[in-house]
């Protein structure tokens, strides 16, 4: 393979890695601020990007994502790789590219170890970047570099340092500036104090309730009363979702139907959400076929187009037994399950959706994901 092709490939792979890392940065903030979709292309089998994004390993410090660092790293590689085409700078540039590719590969191997043995989940995008790091290293080795930095003149050092600093300023500072602003620390502490000191109420959270699974003996149970056509309920689902990823053994999630539709909720005077009752029945019936979580996520991700036809379509897409599903929808059992949830919610003081209960302590409305993180950590810290 010609040298020119190898240098072009180094540039190409560096650019691809930069794009992946920038998307990861966007995904990091989306997950941390509850704006990501509930169904992710990166969640299957042992792969779960959201578990990675909510872990402490996904950030360098002060909420700066590791992906931003990776974007700056590969953007630097992309820019300085063009110096390889300059005969006067090719030798010293190759030394820098070689050193960076070694460091990048070592970092990739370290985080691969973290995913495999610490988090025990894999990030598909991370593995793509890991593979690119190794490919760039092999391409660089094939160009026969020599690590002798004494041959790099002062002017070139300043040029490389300027490129490095500029790239990191763009990929780290800009995303941090554009990061959505949450509650102030004082407001967050006040909210947590109010929740912890709220009297608890009893709610049924046994085996027959709708749950995403997890640890049945988790010290914290989050109950959510929700309506599938309520826009705030969708946002609440997106905001609580990363919490369940970050604390899989400490938090158990229980879902309760509270449709704002007079067809099944006598406390509602209108059918403002005309498909909410059928959606509530549908998720109950999906649970009968062990597909509650998948159906719950699909309903919220398709909230804008929800209808009776869309509910049937989602059931088909999730490979439910349609005959059993439709029979369940028409049954008195599904209707009674909705009534039971509504009545329990009314006794507990539910007046609107979404309404959460954390170990029986009521939270009305939306909490940002980062506030949920702090609330869960505070409750866990108070446990004996």
Helix count, DSSP H or I runs of 4 or more residues: 14
Strand order of the largest sheet: 3-5-4-6-7
Shape: elongated
Number of domains: 2
- What is the total tally of β strands? 7
Structural category is alpha+beta
Low-pLDDT parts are: none
| The level-1 CATH class of the largest domain | Alpha Beta
Radius of gyration, Cα only, in angstroms?
Answer: 26 Å
How widely separated are the two ends?
64 Å
Largest sheet: 5 strands, mixed
Helix content: 55-70%
Average pLDDT taken over every residue:
91
Q: What CATH architecture of the largest domain would you give?
A: 3-Layer(aba) Sandwich
| N-to-C order of helices and strands | HEEHHHHHHEEHEHHHHHEEH
CATH superfamily of the largest domain: Glutaredoxin
- The CATH topology of the largest domain, please? Glutaredoxin
Determine the strand fraction and express it as a percent band. 5-15%
Gist?
The protein is α+β, with helices and mostly antiparallel strands and 384 residues long. The protein folds into two domains: 3-178, Up-down Bundle (de novo design (two linked rop proteins)); 185-382, Glutaredoxin, CATH 3.40.30. Helices cover 59% and strands 7% of the residues.
Pick out its properties.
de novo design (two linked rop proteins), two-stranded antiparallel ribbon, 7% strand, five-stranded mixed sheet, 384 residues, Glutaredoxin, elongated, 14 helices, 2 domains, alpha+beta
Notes on the structure:
By secondary structure, the protein is α+β, with helices and mostly antiparallel strands. The chain folds into two domains: 176 residues, VKOR domain (de novo design (two linked rop proteins)), CATH 1.20.1440; 198 residues, Glutaredoxin (3-Layer(aba) Sandwich), CATH 3.40.30.10. 59% of the residues lie in helices and 7% in strands. The protein has 14 helices and seven strands. Strands 3-5-4-6-7 form a five-stranded mixed sheet, with helices on both faces. Strand 1 and strand 2 form a beta hairpin. Helix 1 runs antiparallel to helix 3, helix 7 packs across helix 14 and helix 9 packs across helix 12. The longest helix has 30 residues. It is elongated. The N and C termini lie far apart (64 Å). The mean pLDDT is 91.
